[in-house]
Amino acid sequence: MNQNPITVVIGIDMETDVGSFTPYYEGLRGGTPLLLDLFDELDVTTTFLFTGEAARDNPEVARECLDRGHEVGSHSYQHETVGDPLFDLPGTKPILPHEVYPRIELNTKLVEEATGIRPVSFRCPRLWGSTEVVNALEELGYVADLTYPMYYYREQFAPYHPDPEDWTKQGDSKVLEIPNFADMVMESNDPGLERDRDQWPLFRTKGGQYMLERSLAFHEFCGEKGIDTFLCFYIHPWEFWPMEPSYNFGEATVIPEEFITKNTGPAAIEEMRILIQGLKDAGAVFMQSKDVPALLQERGVNS
């Protein structure tokens, strides 16, 4: 038996275009079918995480994801900051702690209404999670949270059950926290935040082969620590549909940083194909996040 298997969870954050800096769903409606075809071609299963509004306004897309054999989960109600912000983002304010539960509850309701299936996997927008979020997820019956930003906290490198008093520590929550992949081998040039360890969106700005190499380096990192390798990625359907360099809204113009929209469209599909195929060639197994808790129980880990 492989003593350090590679398990991959691809979480697709289903939201408005350009990281919710616009109100449009062109990427969700145009990019999602391209991703579904790619996943069919490469025979991988994934988890699509819808904001409540995205599910409400695009129920046919949510149902298509399910019909094509993938999981549909949640991604907050309006892509709002439900957790603890890690850096300043103008125009974005975190909701108050007492608002967390009702917001996620509404998100859950809208996704269930769109698909007929209650979601059990969640991810906070921008990977900004919190103890309040994890506790709300447990109360609402969720089994997996794909939020923990490994690049920032740098303590948990494999799935774990959080402490109800501090979600970044191991404890006995029923929710399984699945950390997002970060480059823990590189030397960071971003003191404190270390955001340059975060590997999004390097699959399309530096290429699928680059991301494959960094993923396999993390595999070696996990092997040295004696833990199984879990690669949790976050991507968005708008990355696979051409995005504009700027968006005018009458009273203001949004101009995303170049890396946000660089190589969006067909080029991103090709680079994602390289990454997925390379991981498959390395023996990786692709899973939906809702199935990871059972896998760990089977392995006798975190059970």
TrEMBL record:
<dbReference type="InterPro" id="IPR011330">
    <property type="entry name" value="Glyco_hydro/deAcase_b/a-brl"/>
</dbReference>
<dbReference type="InterPro" id="IPR002509">
    <property type="entry name" value="NODB_dom"/>
</dbReference>
<dbReference type="GO" id="GO:0005975">
    <property type="term" value="P:carbohydrate metabolic process"/>
</dbReference>
<feature type="domain" description="NodB homology">
    <location>
        <begin position="16"/>
        <end position="167"/>
    </location>
</feature>
<dbReference type="GO" id="GO:0016810">
    <property type="term" value="F:hydrolase activity, acting on carbon-nitrogen (but not peptide) bonds"/>
</dbReference>
<dbReference type="Pfam" id="PF01522">
    <property type="entry name" value="Polysacc_deac_1"/>
</dbReference>
<protein>
    <submittedName>
        <fullName>Polysaccharide deacetylase family protein</fullName>
    </submittedName>
</protein>
